[in-house]
Amino acid sequence: MKALHWLTASEVRAAYRSRSLSPVELVDALLDHVERHDPRINAFIRLDAEKVRAEARCAEAEIRAEGSRGPLHGIPVAIKDNIDVAGEVTTCHSKLMLDNVATSDAAIVSRLRAQGAILFGKVA
Q1: Max Cα separation, the chain?
Q2: Do residues 16 and 23 touch, judged by C-beta distance below 8 A?
Q3: Are 60 and 74 in contact (CB under 8 A)?
Q4: Rounded to whole angstroms, how far apart are CA atoms 99 and 5?
């Protein structure tokens, strides 16, 4: 298998189905990759590793117990910082909006959550 951070969503789903990969394993590998490379790239504005791991554990348990909710179940997705995620700051990468906490999810975030996607932080 190629490096986990290069897998497509389709490849991840196939790996989940064959149980050669789990959402927790994928998230751990991606968090490690971000930790090693993001200090140079600065793509992530916010990334709560424990929250992401908790979402991965939940997705893994659901997939094993009930099957997949859809094609994005257990797939990590980074959210652009101009898209609202309830309870999180949405700054649009502007210092003027540092205190702008979203009160609700944007439609796309609601759809991602409904499909079981793992929200993997906010990117610039």
Answers
A1: 47
A2: yes
A3: yes
A4: 32
First-last CA distance in the chain: 30
92 Rama class: left (phi>0) / alpha (psi -120 to 50) / beta:
left
pLDDT band for position 2 (50/70/90)?
confident
CA pair distance 79, 55, nearest whole angstrom: 15
DSSP 8-class letter at 88: S
Amino acid letter, residue 81:
D
33-81 residue pLDDT tens: 999 999 999 999 999 999 999 999 999 999 999 999 999 999 999 999 9
Query: Which of 82, 87, 86 lies closest to 110, judged by CA?
Result: 86
